[in-house]
Amino acid sequence: MRDAIAAAARRLAAASETARLDAELLMAHALGVERDALLFGDPDRPSPAAFAGLVERRLAHEPIAYIIGRRDFWTIRLGVGPGVLIPRPDSETLIEAALDHFGEAGPHTILDLGTGPGTLLLAALAQWPHARALGVDASADALAYAERNAVALGLADRAAFRQGDWVEGVEGRFDLILCNPPYVESGAALPPDVADWEPAGALYAGADGLAAYRRLAPLIGPLLAPGGIACIEIGAGQCDAVSALFAAEGFTIKTRTDLRGVVRTLILALDRD
Q: Are residues 41 and 96 in the same domain?
């Protein structure tokens, strides 16, 4: 097994910047154990037959999360696969911003626009056990993952999901609105792991990457409860342009940076009763 991991890492170096980690995760998946158990187990045990096929899939740039069928985010583990956007650590800044605003008491009602596999919605419900949430997505595939994840995490009784175009059919007001919309320019060059595998509808947003924000800016205010906030993810370098769109709708805006110091989240509020 030790030799198989080393050989796989050498081959994967041409396809991944995290070749050794990828090889270990694939081996752990082939064995049906967590990576920690692999690292502290017997390195001289035989390599499982399934490992070679998993390595070939990664060499074809299939994302690790799709191959092993899961991705950890915040405090939860989400099932993912083809047809859904893979959760990224950068998106945790939205939950961090909401936690700063609401504290441990949390919001009572949450709306997640473009929920994907339920990433932000289920992380928020896990954080605040008294909250309830509605997730909306245009993709039936994504919503199927979201519903399964809600059940697996024991959160289905507090989570509802709806297929629709952003706020289509959504009524009422929400203490917290979360949204990670597509924001990549249509001509941008993305790594093959992303461009060739993840759903284009969750990535690209017109020639300048701002198409989704232009639609969302006038839609969010009527759905925001007094004292509530909306946390919106943005791409690197988009802060000024996206802020201008929401400022024009009367929002006051704060920002939060990710671990690399990039402004990643806009925190929107309205000054109203």
A: no
